[in-house]
Amino acid sequence: MLSIIVNGLFVSMTLMPMAVGFSLIFGILRIANLAHGELFMLGGYMVWFLVALHNVNYWLALLVAPIPVIILGVFLERYVFRQFRTMLLPSLIVSVGLILILQTGVLVTVDLMGQGLGTQRIPSPFSGSFNLLGVFIPQTRAFVTLVGIAALVALLAFLRLTLLGKTIRACAQDPEAASVHGIDINRNGVIVMAIGTGLAALSGGINGVVFGVGPYMGFGFLLTALVAVVVGGMGSLLGTVLGVLIIGFTSVLTSQFIGADFSDVVVYSVLFALLVFRPNGLFGYLIHSH
Asked: Tens of pLDDT along 122-142?
């Protein structure tokens, strides 16, 4: 039982930072940025570049790596996505183009560096495992789990307890009313994009230690994160958190009792079954209240 809880939390936290970042951006800006996975991938590659190729301390690399990704995200919000706010289909089309551009850019860059196009390993600052009530937990997995939890708590505390966070929530609930009351919608949009892309880059940096980094790593993670976001309800942070936990524990339980090969089948079956009864997800009604 404890091993299921530990593994369920680990799988959930591999997705959590990226999923809540995507949900935050969609909930505030109404942008469906499918290139969010590529920002995740860039974060992983930045950490790999600093640690594996330049012997930078992993912890320092994890702090520094999200910065260029955040700058890119802010640039995209300002000069690409801003004109498509609330326009779902155009933002989807633009983001698909960005996926191709960013993937190709990484492929060309890594090839020119002579590093090969396969999965690259980020040297882990951890080794071994520890015993928790009879369950042996790899230190790297514990690290990913704790960082995911910490990122989630920090984001929720920021949105709930700070003045800036409250203005961001006001923009989500009623952008026009927020603008009338003097809240700068565009400034908040930049901040939200910075937070969302920063979470994606951080997630790439911590997951790269476990799974390695590759040019196409973002797609698989984003696809699973999107399932969690849809299950919870697009644009609802609470729903996304619950959706990630549902998907994470469903995957682990399936692997434990049926087989790992059936994990994706069961996860998507849960998605389809839920959407039959709740087409907007568990908390999808929040979108309409916005």
From this structure: 988 888 888 887 778 889 999
Q: For residue range 139-183, what is the model confidence (pLDDT) as tens digits? A: 999 999 999 999 999 999 999 999 999 988 888 777 778 777 778
- Encode pLDDT of 185-221 as tens digits: 888 889 999 999 999 999 999 999 999 999 999 988 9
Q: What are the DSSP calls for the chain, one per residue?
A: -HHHHHHHHHHHHHHHHHHHHHHHHHHHH----TTHHHHHHHHHHHHHIIIIIT---HHHHHHHTHHHHHHHHHHHIIIIIGGGTT-HHHHHHHHHHHHHHHHHHHHHHHHHTT--SS-BPPPPS--SEEEETTEEEEHHHHHHHHHHHHHHHHHHHHHHHSHHHHHHHHHHH-HHHHHHTT--HHHHHHHHHHHHHHHHHHHHHHHHHHH-B-TTHHHHHHHHHHHHHHHH-TT-HHHHHHHHHHHHHHHHHHHHHT-GGGHHHHHHHHHHHHHHH-TT-TTTHHHHH-
